[in-house]
Amino acid sequence: MNILICNDDGISARGIQELAKALSGCGKIYVFAPDGQRSASGHSITIKDSIFACEAEFPFAEKAWKVGGTPADCVKIGLEILRQQGISVDMIFSGINHGANLGTDVLYSGTVSAAVEGALNKIPSVALSVYEHKPTHFEAACRMAVQACRLGADRLPCRNVLNINVPDLPEADIKGVKITRLGPREYEEWFCPQEVEEGPPLYIYAGEPVWYTDLPEDMDVVAAQEQYISVTPIHFDLTDHALRSEVEKWGFQF
Q1: What is the rounded CA–CA span in Å between residue 113 and residue 108?
Q2: What is residue 2's predicted lDDT score, i.e. its pLDDT?
């Protein structure tokens, strides 16, 4: 297999290095990752400015490129560079992200968006995250990556993404795996004002996730709270098909 790996934490992040090492036993690894931190960049792409892509040293990879763009840029340019070299990508893995990507946060996530870009290109794709911004345990996430590769390579529909979130715990302390659906992801949030001598006011966004007590057990946010691994199949069709049928009855005319 030829496996393209990307992330949003940057090419130097420990998570992507652990992922490449884990998946190197499943196939040839090609890394395309941002040159620095690109968290919460969503599915943004660079359309007016130029971006660079230069080869870099990377353990366990056949080749690696450092890219001056977003996670979605990394996948787009990565697929093109490899195509020009006669390399066809079989799967795309994004991560291992430092921090959870649960519920409605997938709309902001550069990690998930990179995997969705793979799905847009009809390549089975997986996003992996650990529930901690400064994780110390990657073993379970790596184990899940290898399972996703071996179990999903021939069965994961090419227009879909597996979004996997793993507790930052030793494997023995994780309660198990739950196949989940996206839940809400809300925060007690605020914008902290910054002291400036001149110019407009500056603010930094911050917040703490809401702890849920009344949600169904099959939601990813609940699985995370209970220290389970969450595996959520997602796709990029945002159409509300039930509401679409209702709107047809409203009588829009032109």
Answers
A1: 8
A2: 98
